[in-house]
Design brief:
Blueprint (H helix, E strand, L loop, with lengths): L2 H9 L3 H10 L12 E2 L2 H10 L7 E5 L5 H8 L3 E6 L4 H8 L6 E5 L7 H5 L4 E6 L5 H10 L4 E9 H7 L10 H9 E9 L4 E2 L6 E8 L10 H13 L5 H6 L4 H10 L13 H12 L1
Parallel strand pairs: 2-3, 2-5, 3-4, 5-6
Antiparallel strand pairs: 1-8, 6-9, 7-9
Helix pairs in contact: 3-4, 7-9, 10-13, 12-13
The protein binds S-adenosylmethionine.
Length: 286
């Protein structure tokens, strides 16, 4: 296949073209690496539109695959740095993205590369159709590492998107909800059918848009203790808040902190708002 044909083929993420590229390079989508390639142009354009790219902005793309999303990002004017684990894909991207000078590929595992070094101090947006087998560790790394990220637009499992955007009280509300609420303003921007991927995953997907807050949503004395308290509260879901906290903190500390915070220890962790978790943390810290 000559270069011109491949560039044209890569431009639009549709099934015929994705299959053509895989066939040309004698590749199969790897289930182990969570490879479900986007084959719906409207969805792909929607992801990039949600990222609101301005000319010259830096974007970290996680798992560029064969480059469908990367190409739309590059056409929108982004300077893209992409981290891809599959060692067979640099050869493909070399061709599908030939002609773009604003694309840098780093071969490696997103959970192992040094993101602090890669990003330096410049603001970055993160855009990705994530490999679903490691959605949560990737998202928590992006949030917790104090990176210069302003916006994160990711395709994830719908079920995880619902947990991230849940309100207190239901079974979806948990530690990941609180992490996103603490660091970001997050909304689901589109629900995506399995038919939009090749091969089709077993689950429905969703795109979430997370604007990273300049300051955390609540002010706490000790951020690490805040997340320790949250994890403790959700660690034993069937237990009352008081008993769940006592499996991690001293029981006198728990009793006194609950009383000072005016929170009934018989409640369950999933009923506490982020503000209540913040007050509780500060009273545990005392
Ligand atoms: N962006 C492409 C698209 O939208 O068609 C591919 C998305 S596919 C769902 C996920 C991509 O992440 C695959 O290319 C896969 O090889 C890559 N990947 C899997 N595990 C990874 C890891 N630990 N670090 C970096 N990339 C990874």
């Amino acid at each position: 296949m000559n270069e011109e044909t491949l560039i044209n083929i890569a431009r639009i993420p549709v099934i015929r073209q994705t299959k053509g590229i895989l066939k040309h390079f004698k590749l199969r989508a790897s289930h182990r690496l969570g490879q479900n390639f986007l084959i719906d142009e409207t969805v792909a354009n929607g992801i990039v539109a949600a990222a609101e790219i301005k000319e010259g902005e830096r974007v970290l793309e996680i798992g560029p695959g064969i480059g469908s999303l990367s190409e739309i990002l590059l056409n929108a004017g982004a300077k893209v740095t992409a981290v891809e684990l599959d060692k067979k894909l640099p050869e493909v991207l070399n061709e599908t993205l030939a002609g773009y000078d604003n694309f840098t590929l780093i071969s490696g595992d997103i959970l192992k590369v040094d993101l602090v070094e890669i990003m330096g101090n410049e603001p970055y947006k993160v855009v990705a159709n994530l490999p679903y087998y490691i959605t949560t560790p990737i998202l928590l790394t992006l949030l917790e590492k104090k990176l210069p990220i302003t916006k994160i637009v990711t395709m994830i499992q719908k079920e995880v998107a619902e947990r991230i955007t849940a309100n207190p009280g239901g079974k979806d509300y948990g530690a990941i909800t609180l992490a996103f609420k603490y660091f970001t303003d997050t909304k689901i921007s589109q629900i995506v059918s399995p038919k939009c991927f090749y091969p089709a995953p077993e689950v429905t997907s969703a795109v979430i848009v997370s604007d990273v807050l300049p300051n955390p949503f609540v002010k706490v004395k000790d951020e690490e203790l805040f997340f320790k308290t949250v994890r403790a509260a959700f660690g034993k879901r069937r237990k009352t808040l008081s008993n769940a906290l006592k499996s991690v903190f001293d029981k006198e500390v728990v009793a006194s902190a609950l009383e000072k915070s005016n929170i009934d220890g018989a409640r369950r962790g999933e009923t506490l708002s982020i503000e209540e978790f913040a007050i509780l943390t500060d009273n545990i810290a005392k």
